[in-house]
Amino acid sequence: MTRKTATSPSGRSPHNTTSRNTTSRNAPPRAWQRMLSGRRLDLLDPAPVDIEIEDIALGLSRVARWNGQTTGDWPFSVAQHCVLVERLATTFKPGLDRRWRLAALLHDAPEYVIGDMISPFKAALGLDYKDFEHRLMRAIHIRFGLPAELPQWVEQLIKRADRASAFIEATRLAGFTDAEAARFFGRPRGLKGPGVERLLQLAAHPPEQARAAFLQRFNRLR
């Protein structure tokens, strides 16, 4: 007697379904991010050609600094932070070349993909996280005409501006006392000149406004 093969209601063999399910389970996990620009960014091997400033601006405008623990109706976004750091870098070094101002503006650009992790969490994750962040930063630099690795003095200047920004944000938005912020971030020095008082008056903006301000600074520096 001929034995019939069982079939599913669709007429397909259940063995085929099992095979497909097994293949799906064994497939490597997705390691790319679809962007609204249509780009597909490989997170493990990011290519400069897949990076668009509109995607960066959109992402950063929706990522909150300080895990969202800031005063106001809106979170203080990474996009706003980047604009502040660029302006602080120029305050610390008047006449700073446009390239390095652009580097300051883009210093946290990888966070449009990986988000803004507070420093204690970054330390807990260790070197693997830093390596991933560094690879993405190199691709972003190349995409926008900067050297993959910045000169050391530029890195140090951006770090100084970044820490000054953290102190300002901490004391004006995130509930830190002046002494507490100074202990963690250092007290900024060299905040002199026209426009400094305006820099110190922080207020969180809606995402669309933060996005527009970031893009405006980018376009002026390109």
Determine the CATH superfamily.
Hypothetical protein af1432
Give the mean pLDDT: 87
3D shape: globular
What is the count of DSSP helices, taking H or I runs of 4+ residues?
11
Proportion of strand residues? under 5%
- Element-level helix/strand string: HEEHHHHHHHHHH
Number of strands: 2
Strand order of the largest sheet: 1-2
Radius of gyration over alpha carbons?
23 Å
Can you identify the CATH class?
Mainly Alpha
- The share of residues in helices is 40-55%
The gist of it:
With 222 residues, this protein is mainly alpha-helical.
Write up this protein.
The chain has one domain (43-221): Hypothetical protein af1432, CATH 1.10.3210.10. It has eleven helices and two strands; from the N terminus they run αββαααααααααα. The chain has helices spanning 14-26, 53-61, 78-92, 98-105, 111-114, 119-125, 127-143, 152-172, 178-185, 196-200, 207-221; strands at residues 32-34, 40-42. The chain has a two-stranded antiparallel sheet with strand order 1-2. α4 (98-105) packs antiparallel against α11 and α8 packs antiparallel against α9 (178-185). Residues 1-14 have low confidence and may be disordered.
